[in-house]
Protein backbone atom coordinates (compact mmCIF):
# COMPACT_ATOMS: atom_id res chain seq x y z
CA UNK A 1 0.00 0.00 0.00
CA UNK A 2 1.26 3.48 -0.80
CA UNK A 3 -0.05 7.02 -1.06
CA UNK A 4 1.19 10.58 -1.41
CA UNK A 5 0.08 14.17 -0.85
CA UNK A 6 1.72 17.19 -2.50
CA UNK A 7 1.34 20.93 -2.09
CA UNK A 8 0.14 22.92 -5.07
CA UNK A 9 2.13 26.02 -4.17
CA UNK A 10 5.90 26.13 -3.92
CA UNK A 11 7.83 27.63 -1.00
CA UNK A 12 8.58 31.18 -2.11
CA UNK A 13 11.34 31.86 0.43
CA UNK A 14 14.65 30.19 1.20
CA UNK A 15 14.23 30.68 4.97
CA UNK A 16 11.36 28.55 6.25
CA UNK A 17 10.12 26.34 9.09
CA UNK A 18 8.04 23.26 8.26
CA UNK A 19 6.13 21.57 11.10
CA UNK A 20 4.77 18.05 10.59
CA UNK A 21 2.75 16.06 13.12
CA UNK A 22 2.31 12.39 12.30
CA UNK A 23 1.53 9.09 13.94
CA UNK A 24 2.43 5.53 12.88
CA UNK A 25 0.73 2.47 14.30
CA UNK A 26 0.44 -1.21 13.42
CA UNK A 27 1.10 -4.74 14.56
CA UNK A 28 4.37 -5.80 16.14
CA UNK A 29 5.74 -7.24 12.90
CA UNK A 30 4.27 -4.62 10.59
CA UNK A 31 6.49 -2.47 8.45
CA UNK A 32 6.29 0.74 6.47
CA UNK A 33 8.04 4.02 5.71
CA UNK A 34 7.18 7.70 5.60
CA UNK A 35 8.96 10.32 3.49
CA UNK A 36 8.83 14.13 3.62
CA UNK A 37 9.89 15.59 0.26
CA UNK A 38 11.04 19.06 -0.77
CA UNK A 39 11.65 18.85 -4.52
CA UNK A 40 11.61 20.98 -7.60
CA UNK A 41 8.44 20.52 -9.63
CA UNK A 42 6.63 18.29 -7.14
CA UNK A 43 6.44 14.49 -7.44
CA UNK A 44 9.47 12.85 -9.07
CA UNK A 45 8.95 10.89 -12.25
CA UNK A 46 8.23 7.19 -11.79
CA UNK A 47 6.48 7.47 -8.42
CA UNK A 48 7.70 7.72 -4.83
CA UNK A 49 7.07 4.36 -3.20
CA UNK A 50 10.17 4.77 -1.00
CA UNK A 51 13.62 6.33 -1.04
CA UNK A 52 14.97 3.02 -2.42
CA UNK A 53 12.67 2.95 -5.46
CA UNK A 54 12.65 6.60 -6.55
CA UNK A 55 14.53 7.59 -9.68
CA UNK A 56 16.16 11.00 -10.25
CA UNK A 57 14.82 13.97 -8.29
CA UNK A 58 16.10 17.42 -7.46
CA UNK A 59 15.78 18.32 -3.80
CA UNK A 60 15.58 16.86 -0.31
CA UNK A 61 13.85 13.84 1.22
CA UNK A 62 13.57 12.83 4.89
CA UNK A 63 13.01 9.09 5.26
CA UNK A 64 11.40 7.71 8.42
CA UNK A 65 11.60 3.93 8.57
CA UNK A 66 12.98 0.99 10.60
CA UNK A 67 16.41 0.96 8.95
CA UNK A 68 19.06 -0.82 11.01
CA UNK A 69 16.61 -2.68 13.25
CA UNK A 70 16.78 -0.10 16.07
CA UNK A 71 13.05 0.59 16.22
CA UNK A 72 13.16 3.56 13.86
CA UNK A 73 15.48 6.07 12.20
CA UNK A 74 15.19 9.48 10.53
CA UNK A 75 17.60 10.04 7.64
CA UNK A 76 18.14 12.93 5.25
CA UNK A 77 19.07 12.54 1.55
CA UNK A 78 19.97 15.10 -1.12
CA UNK A 79 19.92 14.76 -4.89
CA UNK A 80 20.69 17.22 -7.67
CA UNK A 81 18.73 15.26 -10.26
CA UNK A 82 21.72 13.24 -11.53
CA UNK A 83 21.52 10.18 -9.24
CA UNK A 84 18.93 7.44 -9.65
CA UNK A 85 18.36 6.07 -6.15
CA UNK A 86 16.68 2.88 -7.39
CA UNK A 87 19.77 2.04 -9.47
CA UNK A 88 22.35 3.02 -6.86
CA UNK A 89 24.31 0.16 -5.26
CA UNK A 90 24.20 1.68 -1.73
CA UNK A 91 21.47 4.23 -1.10
CA UNK A 92 22.12 4.18 2.66
CA UNK A 93 25.57 5.67 2.15
CA UNK A 94 24.02 8.79 0.54
CA UNK A 95 22.44 10.01 3.79
CA UNK A 96 23.96 13.31 5.00
CA UNK A 97 22.33 13.14 8.44
CA UNK A 98 20.44 10.69 10.63
CA UNK A 99 19.27 9.88 14.14
CA UNK A 100 17.48 7.05 15.93
CA UNK A 101 13.81 7.62 16.66
CA UNK A 102 11.25 4.90 17.63
CA UNK A 103 8.23 6.34 15.90
CA UNK A 104 5.80 3.36 15.87
CA UNK A 105 2.89 2.83 18.30
CA UNK A 106 3.69 5.83 20.49
CA UNK A 107 0.04 6.68 21.05
CA UNK A 108 0.63 10.41 20.57
CA UNK A 109 1.58 12.32 17.42
CA UNK A 110 5.27 12.82 16.70
CA UNK A 111 6.39 16.39 16.00
CA UNK A 112 8.90 16.85 13.18
CA UNK A 113 10.34 20.28 12.42
CA UNK A 114 12.50 21.25 9.44
CA UNK A 115 14.22 24.61 9.80
CA UNK A 116 16.34 26.39 7.20
CA UNK A 117 17.99 29.74 7.68
CA UNK A 118 20.63 31.54 5.73
CA UNK A 119 23.42 29.73 7.60
CA UNK A 120 22.04 26.35 8.72
CA UNK A 121 19.67 23.49 8.02
CA UNK A 122 18.28 21.52 10.99
CA UNK A 123 15.83 18.70 11.64
CA UNK A 124 14.19 18.38 15.05
CA UNK A 125 11.84 15.72 16.40
CA UNK A 126 9.81 16.15 19.58
CA UNK A 127 11.72 19.38 20.34
CA UNK A 128 15.09 17.57 20.21
CA UNK A 129 17.71 18.08 17.52
CA UNK A 130 17.99 15.11 15.18
CA UNK A 131 20.76 16.50 12.97
CA UNK A 132 21.88 19.85 11.61
CA UNK A 133 24.42 21.13 9.09
CA UNK A 134 25.63 24.36 7.53
CA UNK A 135 26.40 22.72 4.17
CA UNK A 136 22.80 22.24 2.97
CA UNK A 137 20.67 25.00 1.50
CA UNK A 138 17.46 24.41 -0.48
CA UNK A 139 16.58 27.34 -2.77
CA UNK A 140 13.11 28.85 -3.03
CA UNK A 141 10.56 27.52 -5.49
CA UNK A 142 10.52 23.89 -4.28
CA UNK A 143 7.37 22.02 -3.27
CA UNK A 144 6.70 19.99 -0.14
CA UNK A 145 5.12 16.54 -0.27
CA UNK A 146 4.47 13.52 1.93
CA UNK A 147 4.45 9.89 0.82
CA UNK A 148 4.04 6.60 2.68
CA UNK A 149 4.29 2.94 1.78
CA UNK A 150 3.62 -0.29 3.67
CA UNK A 151 4.57 -3.92 3.26
CA UNK A 152 2.31 -7.00 3.35
CA UNK A 153 1.64 -6.38 7.06
CA UNK A 154 0.86 -2.66 6.75
CA UNK A 155 1.53 0.21 9.09
CA UNK A 156 -1.01 3.01 9.36
CA UNK A 157 0.35 6.55 8.92
CA UNK A 158 -1.68 9.62 9.93
CA UNK A 159 -0.76 13.22 9.14
CA UNK A 160 -2.38 15.63 11.62
CA UNK A 161 -0.52 18.81 10.71
CA UNK A 162 1.72 20.16 7.96
CA UNK A 163 2.42 23.88 8.05
CA UNK A 164 5.13 25.96 6.42
CA UNK A 165 6.08 29.35 7.84
CA UNK A 166 8.96 31.75 7.56
CA UNK A 167 11.83 31.72 10.00
CA UNK A 168 10.36 34.76 11.82
CA UNK A 169 7.09 32.87 12.50
CA UNK A 170 4.89 34.26 9.69
CA UNK A 171 2.82 31.52 8.03
CA UNK A 172 3.06 31.31 4.28
CA UNK A 173 -0.18 32.53 2.66
CA UNK A 174 -2.37 29.95 0.92
CA UNK A 175 -2.44 29.70 -2.89
CA UNK A 176 -5.27 31.33 -4.84
CA UNK A 177 -6.85 27.95 -5.64
CA UNK A 178 -9.14 26.61 -2.87
CA UNK A 179 -7.49 23.22 -2.28
CA UNK A 180 -4.08 23.48 -0.62
CA UNK A 181 -2.84 20.00 -1.34
CA UNK A 182 -3.72 17.25 -3.72
CA UNK A 183 -3.73 13.51 -3.01
CA UNK A 184 -2.71 11.10 -5.72
CA UNK A 185 -3.65 7.44 -5.55
CA UNK A 186 -1.04 4.94 -6.78
CA UNK A 187 -3.57 2.12 -7.03
CA UNK A 188 -7.31 1.94 -6.64
CA UNK A 189 -7.04 -0.98 -4.23
CA UNK A 190 -4.41 0.77 -2.05
CA UNK A 191 -5.15 2.98 0.95
CA UNK A 192 -3.92 6.61 0.90
CA UNK A 193 -2.06 8.33 3.70
CA UNK A 194 -4.56 9.67 6.22
CA UNK A 195 -5.05 13.40 6.36
CA UNK A 196 -6.86 15.74 8.71
CA UNK A 197 -9.98 14.60 10.49
CA UNK A 198 -13.22 16.45 9.83
CA UNK A 199 -13.14 18.54 13.04
CA UNK A 200 -9.51 19.52 12.58
CA UNK A 201 -10.20 20.52 8.98
CA UNK A 202 -13.16 22.66 10.04
CA UNK A 203 -11.14 24.32 12.81
CA UNK A 204 -8.31 25.08 10.41
CA UNK A 205 -10.79 26.46 7.86
CA UNK A 206 -12.42 28.65 10.50
CA UNK A 207 -9.04 29.93 11.71
CA UNK A 208 -7.81 30.70 8.23
CA UNK A 209 -11.03 32.41 7.23
CA UNK A 210 -10.34 31.94 3.55
CA UNK A 211 -10.83 28.18 3.32
CA UNK A 212 -14.20 27.03 1.93
CA UNK A 213 -16.51 24.62 3.80
CA UNK A 214 -16.24 20.93 3.20
CA UNK A 215 -18.11 19.84 0.12
CA UNK A 216 -20.82 17.19 -0.03
CA UNK A 217 -18.65 14.92 -2.15
CA UNK A 218 -15.81 15.11 0.37
CA UNK A 219 -18.22 14.44 3.22
CA UNK A 220 -19.69 11.41 1.41
CA UNK A 221 -16.20 10.08 0.71
CA UNK A 222 -15.25 10.54 4.35
CA UNK A 223 -18.46 8.79 5.43
CA UNK A 224 -17.64 5.82 3.19
CA UNK A 225 -14.17 5.61 4.69
CA UNK A 226 -15.55 5.77 8.22
CA UNK A 227 -17.96 2.95 7.42
CA UNK A 228 -15.08 0.89 5.98
CA UNK A 229 -13.08 1.52 9.16
CA UNK A 230 -16.05 0.48 11.30
CA UNK A 231 -16.45 -2.70 9.27
CA UNK A 232 -12.77 -3.50 9.69
CA UNK A 233 -13.04 -2.87 13.45
CA UNK A 234 -16.01 -5.27 13.61
CA UNK A 235 -14.00 -7.93 11.78
CA UNK A 236 -11.09 -7.47 14.20
CA UNK A 237 -13.50 -7.75 17.14
CA UNK A 238 -14.94 -11.00 15.76
CA UNK A 239 -11.44 -12.35 15.24
CA UNK A 240 -10.55 -11.49 18.84
CA UNK A 241 -13.69 -13.27 20.02
CA UNK A 242 -12.70 -16.40 18.07
CA UNK A 243 -9.20 -16.26 19.51
CA UNK A 244 -10.62 -15.93 23.01
CA UNK A 245 -12.88 -18.95 22.46
CA UNK A 246 -9.98 -21.05 21.18
CA UNK A 247 -7.87 -19.96 24.12
CA UNK A 248 -10.57 -20.99 26.57
CA UNK A 249 -10.96 -24.37 24.87
CA UNK A 250 -7.21 -24.98 25.00
CA UNK A 251 -7.15 -23.99 28.66
CA UNK A 252 -10.02 -26.38 29.41
CA UNK A 253 -8.25 -29.25 27.65
CA UNK A 254 -5.06 -28.59 29.58
CA UNK A 255 -6.93 -28.50 32.88
CA UNK A 256 -8.66 -31.81 32.05
CA UNK A 257 -5.27 -33.40 31.40
CA UNK A 258 -4.07 -32.13 34.75
CA UNK A 259 -6.75 -33.80 36.89
CA UNK A 260 -4.67 -36.79 38.04
CA UNK A 261 -1.61 -34.76 38.92
CA UNK A 262 0.62 -32.00 37.64
CA UNK A 263 1.46 -32.31 34.00
CA UNK A 264 5.16 -31.85 34.65
CA UNK A 265 5.14 -35.03 36.80
CA UNK A 266 3.82 -37.08 33.87
CA UNK A 267 6.32 -35.44 31.57
CA UNK A 268 9.11 -36.25 34.01
CA UNK A 269 8.07 -39.92 34.20
CA UNK A 270 7.98 -40.17 30.41
CA UNK A 271 11.39 -38.54 30.14
CA UNK A 272 12.79 -41.01 32.72
CA UNK A 273 11.47 -44.02 30.79
CA UNK A 274 12.82 -42.64 27.53
CA UNK A 275 16.18 -42.17 29.18
CA UNK A 276 16.25 -45.80 30.34
CA UNK A 277 15.36 -47.01 26.85
CA UNK A 278 18.13 -44.89 25.38
CA UNK A 279 20.64 -46.37 27.87
CA UNK A 280 19.58 -49.94 26.98
CA UNK A 281 19.83 -49.26 23.26
CA UNK A 282 23.26 -47.68 23.76
CA UNK A 283 24.48 -50.72 25.74
CA UNK A 284 23.21 -53.14 23.06
CA UNK A 285 24.86 -51.07 20.36
CA UNK A 286 28.18 -51.07 22.20
CA UNK A 287 27.93 -54.84 22.79
CA UNK A 288 27.24 -55.50 19.11
CA UNK A 289 30.04 -53.23 17.99
CA UNK A 290 32.56 -54.73 20.47
CA UNK A 291 32.15 -58.45 19.63
CA UNK A 292 33.35 -60.38 16.57
CA UNK A 293 30.84 -63.01 15.41
CA UNK A 294 32.90 -64.43 12.56
CA UNK A 295 34.15 -67.41 14.65
CA UNK A 296 30.62 -68.23 15.77
CA UNK A 297 29.35 -68.13 12.20
CA UNK A 298 32.23 -70.37 11.01
CA UNK A 299 31.50 -72.94 13.73
CA UNK A 300 27.79 -72.90 12.92
CA UNK A 301 28.52 -73.42 9.23
CA UNK A 302 30.84 -76.36 10.00
CA UNK A 303 28.22 -77.98 12.25
CA UNK A 304 25.59 -77.65 9.53
CA UNK A 305 27.96 -79.22 6.97
CA UNK A 306 28.71 -82.21 9.26
CA UNK A 307 25.03 -82.70 10.03
CA UNK A 308 24.18 -82.69 6.33
CA UNK A 309 26.81 -85.32 5.39
CA UNK A 310 25.92 -87.57 8.38
CA UNK A 311 22.26 -87.35 7.52
CA UNK A 312 22.91 -88.66 3.99
CA UNK A 313 24.97 -91.69 5.23
CA UNK A 314 22.55 -92.67 7.97
CA UNK A 315 19.57 -92.39 5.63
CA UNK A 316 21.10 -94.80 3.07
CA UNK A 317 21.93 -97.32 5.82
CA UNK A 318 18.41 -97.23 7.21
CA UNK A 319 16.88 -97.73 3.77
CA UNK A 320 19.21 -100.66 3.05
CA UNK A 321 18.72 -102.33 6.40
CA UNK A 322 14.96 -102.13 6.48
CA UNK A 323 14.32 -103.02 2.82
CA UNK A 324 12.50 -106.45 2.28
CA UNK A 325 14.69 -109.41 1.04
CA UNK A 326 14.13 -110.94 -2.46
CA UNK A 327 14.10 -114.61 -1.40
CA UNK A 328 11.48 -113.95 1.22
CA UNK A 329 9.26 -112.54 -1.45
CA UNK A 330 9.81 -115.54 -3.75
CA UNK A 331 9.04 -117.97 -0.91
CA UNK A 332 5.82 -116.18 -0.12
CA UNK A 333 4.74 -116.39 -3.78
CA UNK A 334 5.42 -120.15 -3.90
CA UNK A 335 3.54 -120.80 -0.66
CA UNK A 336 0.53 -118.88 -1.91
CA UNK A 337 0.45 -120.81 -5.19
CA UNK A 338 0.76 -124.19 -3.36
CA UNK A 339 -2.12 -123.29 -1.08
CA UNK A 340 -4.24 -122.34 -4.07
CA UNK A 341 -3.41 -125.60 -5.89
CA UNK A 342 -4.20 -127.69 -2.82
CA UNK A 343 -7.51 -126.00 -2.39
CA UNK A 344 -8.36 -126.67 -5.98
CA UNK A 345 -7.64 -130.41 -5.60
CA UNK A 346 -9.84 -130.64 -2.50
CA UNK A 347 -12.64 -128.90 -4.29
CA UNK A 348 -12.40 -131.19 -7.33
CA UNK A 349 -12.38 -134.36 -5.22
CA UNK A 350 -15.48 -133.36 -3.28
CA UNK A 351 -17.29 -132.52 -6.45
CA UNK A 352 -16.53 -135.89 -8.01
CA UNK A 353 -17.63 -137.83 -4.88
CA UNK A 354 -20.85 -135.99 -4.49
CA UNK A 355 -24.06 -137.91 -5.59
CA UNK A 356 -25.22 -136.97 -9.02
CA UNK A 357 -28.78 -136.10 -9.75
CA UNK A 358 -30.39 -136.99 -12.99
CA UNK A 359 -33.63 -135.71 -14.35
From TrEMBL:
Extent of Low complexity compositional bias: 180-213
Cell compartments where the protein resides: Membrane
**Any keyword NADP?**
no
The way it spans or sits in the membrane comes to: Single-pass type I membrane protein
A Gene Ontology cellular component where this protein is annotated is: COPII-coated ER to Golgi transport vesicle
Give every L-type lectin-like domain span: 1-167
Taxonomy, superkingdom = Eukaryota
Q: Name one GO molecular function term.
A: D-mannose binding
Listed A to Z, the keywords are: Coiled coil, Lectin, Membrane, Signal, Transmembrane, Transmembrane helix
Q: Segment Disordered: which positions?
A: 167-213
The transmembrane segments are 326-347
Which residues are in coiled coils?
226-260
The record, for SUPFAM superfamilies, names:
Concanavalin A-like lectins/glucanases
Query: Which PANTHER family does this chain map to?
Result: LECTIN, MANNOSE BINDING 1 LIKE (PTHR12223:SF28), VESICULAR MANNOSE-BINDING LECTIN (PTHR12223)
In Swiss-Prot or TrEMBL terms, this protein is called Legume-like lectin
Organism, as annotated? Macrophomina phaseolina (strain MS6)
Amino acid sequence: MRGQVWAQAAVDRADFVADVEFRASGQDRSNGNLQVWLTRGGPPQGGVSSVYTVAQFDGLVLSIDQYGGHGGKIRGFLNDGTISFKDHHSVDSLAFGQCDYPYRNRGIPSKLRITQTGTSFAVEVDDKTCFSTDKVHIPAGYKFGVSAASAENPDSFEIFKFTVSTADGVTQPPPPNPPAVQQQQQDQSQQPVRGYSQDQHQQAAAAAGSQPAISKEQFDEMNVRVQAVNQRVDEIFKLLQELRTRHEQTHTELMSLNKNGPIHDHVGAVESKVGKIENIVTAIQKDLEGKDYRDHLAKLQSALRDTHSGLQDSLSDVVTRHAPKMWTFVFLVIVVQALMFGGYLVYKRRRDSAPKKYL
